[in-house]
Amino acid sequence: MTQALTVLTQVGILVFVVAGMAAMGLGLSVPQIVAPLRAPRLVAAVLVANFVVVPVVAVGAARLLPMDEASAAAVILIGCAAGAPFLPTLAGLAKGDAATAVGVMVLLMVLTVGFAPVVVPRVLEGATVSPGDIASSLVVYMLVPLALGLALRARYPSFAGQAAAALQRASTTGLAVGIVAGLLVTWRDVLGSVGSWIFVGTGLVLLVGLIAGWLTGLGRPVEDRQVLALATAQRNVSAALVIAASLGSDAMVRTLVAALVVPVVLILVAGELGRRSAGTAPTLADPPGPATS
Predict the structure, then answer these.
(1) Are 196 and 189 in contact (CB under 8 A)?
(2) Environment class of residue 249 by beta-carbon count within 10 Å: exposed (0-12), middle (13-18) or buried (19+)?
(3) Overall pTM surpassing 0.85 (yes/no)
(4) Domain 2-274, CATH class in plain words
(5) Half-sphere exposure in the Cβ direction for 230 (13 Å, CA)
(6) Which among 234, 246, 256 has a CA at the least distance from the CA of 179?
(7) How far is 135 from 284, CA to CA, in rounded Å?
(8) Torsion sign (Cα): 216, 41, 20, 86
(9) Nearest to 290 by CA among 217, 203, 227, 231
(10) Neighbouring-strand partners of residue 82
């Protein structure tokens, strides 16, 4: 039964990622995705928040909080891996800009391939980081479906809308199946971690990520700031799990626990942001900021 649930978890998450990325490509164009990245100050702020502020906080939490070695490793790995395919889904729940979400997501994922192999072994003894392992999942499961979606939208625009809606439904279903099956597989590990400092460390990374990401969007529309906050808080748990495999079963279990906590918390946060956005009249919203910063 456990093996079947594990396979179901993997299949559900795979469907979520591949279908979601293809749906994003079918709903957007390359200029839309690139536009947010043409603001140098914004890009610099996003990079500092994701590759300096959050990793420093994660390492500090792992060093200063009285957590066991496996939990400390999990917090560091979560903090050092930025960019995740879950971001467009969170942006949708928060009523944020999809193009900004995809552009920032791709930027962070690509840079994590170079960042993690250099930084993680320096702050986490025994960690083995293979850029190829991280890059392969990034290319095959994320960038290729996104590129195919963009190409199909450019060639068959009338088909793109219906296909994107169907793929988005498949992605949402895959996410639900993956999370439920994953919780059924790991519930003993989750309960066994209750009372440990891993929840405090992970919560600290999430909180700092939300604040740092929000601050990177100063001067921009509130919808962009919400996306940037979620982008910084949502870490690349796939990359973190790839690295955790080199540290042994205890670190793997703790990283998996953190990997389940992060999206569940951020789904609630994004949903609340979306409800607030839907219930706020345009005249009361934050004034729009400049197109570039």
Answers:
(1) no
(2) exposed
(3) no
(4) mainly alpha
(5) 37
(6) 256
(7) 43
(8) negative
(9) 217
(10) 235
| Segment holding 264, helix H or strand E | helix 249-278
Cα–Cα distances (Å) from 196 to 130, 216, 250, 254, 266, in that order, read 29, 32, 13, 10, 21
Q: How far apart are CA 75 and CA 258, in angstroms?
A: 8
Quote the percentage of the chain above a pLDDT of 90. 27
Q: Over 50: is that where the pLDDT of 289 sits?
A: no
Residue 148: pLDDT above 80? yes
Least Cα distance to 135 among 159, 164, 110 occurs for 110
Answer whether residue 292 shows pLDDT above 60. no
Render pLDDT for 176-202 as a digit per residue (tens, 0 to 9). Answer: 888 788 778 776 766 666 666 888 999
Closest CA to 171 of 28, 12, 4, 7: 12
Write out the two tokens for 102: 């995809």
Residue 174 one-letter amino acid = G
Residue 213 structure tokens: 């990401």
Outline where the chain has alpha helix (H).
2-27, 30-34, 40-48, 54-64, 69-80, 87-93, 98-123, 131-138, 144-155, 157-193, 198-216, 222-233, 237-244, 249-278
Query: Rounded to whole angstroms, how far apart are CA atoms 66 and 71?
Result: 10
Residues across the chain: 293
Using an 8 Å Cβ cutoff, are 79 and 57 in contact?
A: yes
Lowest mean pLDDT across 65-79, 165-179, 279-293: 279-293
Count how many Cα atoms sit within 13 Å of the Cα of residue 74 in the half-sphere of its side chain. 29
